[in-house]
Write a structure and sequence with these properties.
Length: about 350
């Protein structure tokens, strides 16, 4: 159950990133934002605690051989992972202090220390992850770009969506945030494809095992997320130009629901055995339960694409529901309906893909 900590790690870091980005934006370029003073310190504590979970796993692994005390000392003071975690914890504490200070004095020059501390946390965590062990420095840089860009995009969106007051300033905010979001998404996708090439060289057959199933669900959830991003970026800007009283905050909050689901799926995925070699993984564990729902008679053969009426129908239903999300926005219907359409679209696309590979 260690994976439960990872979604909270992503959320805490994203909140710190959102506070950082918005603290650097001029007041004229963003809506009025009021968040509680404890939000930054709470996010920093969550980052420090959740980042310790992988270190705790290493400590407990060696505990039986050398004892808990000796294992703790060795990991924290001799292992690279322990040294990098110490940097993460120290920088998280610094971020907690800075967020409180900037909350009271928003225009203080010291706010420029926040992006340095934030990047420091991301760099420290980039050095003890699976990508670093696979690709070395290239893996560290790819994870750094992936993790940081994800947090900048999603964290800023979450803070503005949940803590903005009124519609004033949204137009000016979207003018700079929309390009920033596009850049962040581009980096996330590019770095994600690079990391995936090493972790899952056989993408389709990786769907047989839990890691691949989680990866597939994550990728599918990104589709309605991008539709929300299109709505909250391009379409919201157009609507604000016609109706300055329109408040996109509610739509941003529902986009945040999908973000949270992606955090959860990613956290679960990262705690599963990476399918570098599918046959090796299957020799040590069974196929994923969700895969067996659709392929109860699975015999270990490689998956192949096959046309099937159920597969085509579910994929078309998914496409229709995605288009419905845009229609809901244009007809001024409730954002909750768009979220429901997005989640149903993800379920339909997943089902269609499962029926299309045998």
């Amino acid at each position: 159950m260690y994976w439960i900590s990872e979604p909270f790690l992503y959320l805490g870091f994203a909140i710190l990133a959102g506070i950082t980005v918005l603290s650097l934006a001029p007041e004229s370029k963003k809506p009025v934002i009021k968040f509680p003073v404890w939000l930054g310190p709470a996010a920093a504590v969550i980052v420090a605690l959740c980042a310790f979970i992988p270190i705790l796993q290493i400590i407990l692994f060696f505990k039986e051989d050398v004892g808990l005390s000796q294992s703790f000392k060795a990991v924290m003071f001799s292992f690279k992972e322990g040294e990098r975690y110490a940097s993460t914890a120290a920088l998280s504490f610094l971020m907690a202090v800075l967020t409180v200070f900037i909350h009271r004095r928003p225009s203080a020059f010291i706010r420029w220390l926040m992006p340095l501390a934030l990047l420091g946390i991301s760099f420290a965590m980039s050095s003890f992850n699976h990508a670093a062990s696979l690709f070395g420095v290239k893996g560290e840089l790819a994870f750094f770009g992936h993790f940081t860009s994800m947090a900048v995009w999603t964290g800023t969106l979450l803070i503005v969506g949940w803590f903005s007051k009124g519609s004033k300033g949204w137009g000016a905010f979207l003018k700079w945030f929309h390009p920033l979001a596009i850049l962040s998404v581009t980096i996330v996708i590019g770095s994600g494809l690079f990391l995936m090439s090493g972790v899952t060289p056989d993408l389709v057959n990786s769907w047989i095992v839990p890691y691949g199933q989680a990866l597939l669900i994550k990728h599918i959830l990104i589709i309605p997320l991008l539709f929300f991003a299109f709505i909250n970026g391009y379409l919201a800007k157009r609507k604000l130009a016609l109706n300055p009283r329109f408040n996109p905050a509610v739509w941003s909050r529902y986009e945040g629901v999908i973000l949270w689901l992606i955090y959860i799926v990613t956290g679960y995925m990262n705690q599963q055995s990476a399918p570098h070699d599918i046959s090796v993984v299957l020799s040590a564990a069974d196929a994923a339960d969700t895969f067996l729902w659709f392929h109860a008679a699975f015999d270990g053969m490689p998956l192949r694409f096959t046309w099937s009426l159920p597969g085509i129908m579910f994929l078309l239903i998914g496409a229709g529901l995605l288009l419905r999300m845009v229609t809901v926005f244009r007809r001024n219907r409730r954002a909750a309906e768009a979220l429901l359409c997005g989640l149903l679209a993800a379920a339909a696309i997943y089902t269609g893909i499962m029926f299309s590979f045998q």
